[in-house]
Amino acid sequence: MKLVSVVVPCYNEEEVLPMFYDEITKVTDSMKKEHSELEFEFLFINDGSKDRTLEIFRQLADKDKRVRYISFSRNFGKESGMYAGLKNARGDYVVVMDADLQHPPAFLPQMYNFVKDGEFDCATTRRVSRTGESKVRSFFARMFYKIVNKMSQTEIVDGAQDFRFMTRQMVDAILEMSEYNRFSKGIFSWVGFRVKYMPYENVERPAGTTSWSFWGLFKYAIEGVMAFSTAPLAFAIIFAIICAVISVPLFLVALIGAIFCWQVTTAVTAISGVIFLVGALILFCIGIVGMYLGKTYMEVKNRPIYLTGETDESYRGRKASGESK
Ligand code: UDP
Ligand code: MG
């Protein structure tokens, strides 16, 4: 028997969850018909949703014993959700996918075919188009991949997604990276292994809304750069060299100007401009150092990546003891 754990991080997904459950069980049932060795478990993560997501989990757990769930004590972010899922999954294979059907369950049989014979350790989809996304957003996304790949040795594949069918070996490798600042696009790539990228066209959410704002994505992009590259720390050195090169002719001009008594006011304006520029560059560099220091501070504190409020086990136990009374 081979157990496949399907990990699904959910944040305010009451609208699509029932649809998702129907779709995924349809696909897993047909997979089971074809491959009799397969068993499935569904591990839902409630990332501090403010809607009825947890209630739906309970209903699903009531009617399907393959359904397990972990409900966080508050919103910890999708990265924490995925970590909790991977950590608690019991499967020989683990699938990570979104609840919003943007990661079509119909891919699973194909993905399984890639990993089952040990040819690949991971099968994942790769977006080849960005339909349904604004032009500005696509532009910035492309820029991000260009920049991050220039700055970091870990390649972050453009369009790669968190929709993955992985072997236990790869999951264990990912779990060994227990860092607090988790950027899974980088983590998946950092661990290596043989990955099969399957091209796919972007699909839009059938219901609910994305929880990403533009600002949120921007911060995520910065996280990504900082988690896998220390190149920005070298900016200070580059700026220092540039400033040094510029300062020499400026100094000469000022010196000659002083000797031949050119208009003093223009010189003052020029000098104050330069002081502002250099001041700004210095502050910018200190800011970068500060951000890395902040990340280091959070890592050093070694806080838990997530906290559990309720699980299917606690719920089932509570129910059983209620019924036996
Ligand atoms: N998600 C989560 N915690 C969050 C935000 C999102 O677990 O704080 C989940 C969400 O429920 C969904 C997946 O992460 O299953 C992807 O989220 P979304 O569809 O909002 O992102 P997008 O598809 O636009 O990247
Ligand atoms: Mg989505």
Structure, explained:
The protein is α/β, with parallel strands linked by helices and 325 residues long. It folds into two domains: 2-135 and 154-212, Spore Coat Polysaccharide Biosynthesis Protein SpsA, Chain A (Alpha-Beta Complex), CATH 3.90.550.10; 231-301. It contains eleven helices and eight strands. It has an eight-stranded mixed β-sheet, sandwiched between helices. Strand 2, helix 2 and strand 3 form a beta-alpha-beta unit. The longest helix is centred in the C-terminal third of the chain and has 38 residues, at 264-301. The radius of gyration is 26 Å and the shape is elongated. It binds uridine-5'-diphosphate and magnesium ion.
Roughly what percent helix?
A: 40-55%
Largest sheet: 8 strands, mixed
The tally of domains stands at 2
Give start-end ranges of low-pLDDT stretches: none
Radius of gyration: 26 Å
CATH fourth-tier homologous superfamily of the largest domain: Spore Coat Polysaccharide Biosynthesis Protein SpsA, Chain A
Give helix and strand order, one letter per element, not per position: EHEHEHEHEHEHHEHHHEH
- The rounded distance between the terminal residues' Cα atoms is 37 Å
What's the architecture of the largest domain, going by CATH? Alpha-Beta Complex
Bound molecules: uridine-5'-diphosphate, magnesium ion
Please tally the helical runs, counting DSSP H or I stretches of 4 or more residues.
11
Major sheet strand order: 7-5-6-4-1-2-3-8
What is the average of the pLDDT values?
85
Assign the CATH topology of the largest domain: Spore Coat Polysaccharide Biosynthesis Protein SpsA, Chain A
SS strand fraction: 15-25%
